[in-house]
Fold this protein.
Amino acid sequence: MPSNGHMKYMDPDVLRSIGSIELKARMLVEGLYASRHRCRFYGYSVEFKDHREYVAGDEPRIIDWKTLARTERYYVRRFEMESNMNVVCLLDASGSMSYRPQDPRRMTKMEYACLLVASLSYLANKQQDSPGLVTFTTEIKDFLAPRQGTRHLYTLLARLEAVRPQGETDLENVLKKVALRLRRRGIFILVSDCHGDTNAVLDGLRHLAARGHEVVVLHLLDHDEVAFPFHSLTSFRDLETGAEIMCDPLRQHREYAARVTAFRDAIREGAVGCGADYRFIDTAQPIELVLRDYLLYRRQRA
């Protein structure tokens, strides 16, 4: 993986695997740039939509003369306009994202998340959309409004380079503030381990979705958090609060597994319930496969 400058998170293998797949919006978004995304407005395009009856003031060039010949009634053709969209990545920069796995070959959650964000931002920029970035803990730490252009993309990647995970997180507070700052509808991609009060996390997601945004939740956990591969008496420390607890992993494994499953199910059901897309990601999964499979899923659904 490249490690110099703002290209650190531009993994060529990842970008090659998704280069031919467009990040498509499920909802209709509004915008001015004629890119490859349908919006809810009607206008002129090569993409035919439907007919409507002619009314005084319509331009004669959009009258469908063949339909007039068949029905002896005037109809005009309507076409779908296309629109660019904002693609804003919300990156959790709290202390829990810095967990370093037992296997030194695996990335930390933060490194994995930054690579996800860099790849999605690169893809959005490539298809003439506007990537943006928000990093947060209990408050918004860094805010980069969505824009187009290579220079903006490089600025975004440089901001990723500077992220240092630390402190606690407050997803509900942050998501509500983001919704107030970014009013134009678009795609909001949350990349987080979603630790904290589950109800508060879901309230934040519902608030963002209620504003008309399309919300995507990439629920990222380290493989150690999922598999709990500990065997001897171990002291566990909360990377956000500093609290420590000593336990026997072998005796606690079953209860731990049940709690993690319940936690994942609660986030998934809450996210889907408010209309968001949910994707669980284990850091042991190859990132290029995670991206490719999810983007293919979105394209097929669209």
Q: What stands out?
A: The first helix runs from residue 12 to 18. The CA atoms of residues 262 and 268 lie 10 Å apart.
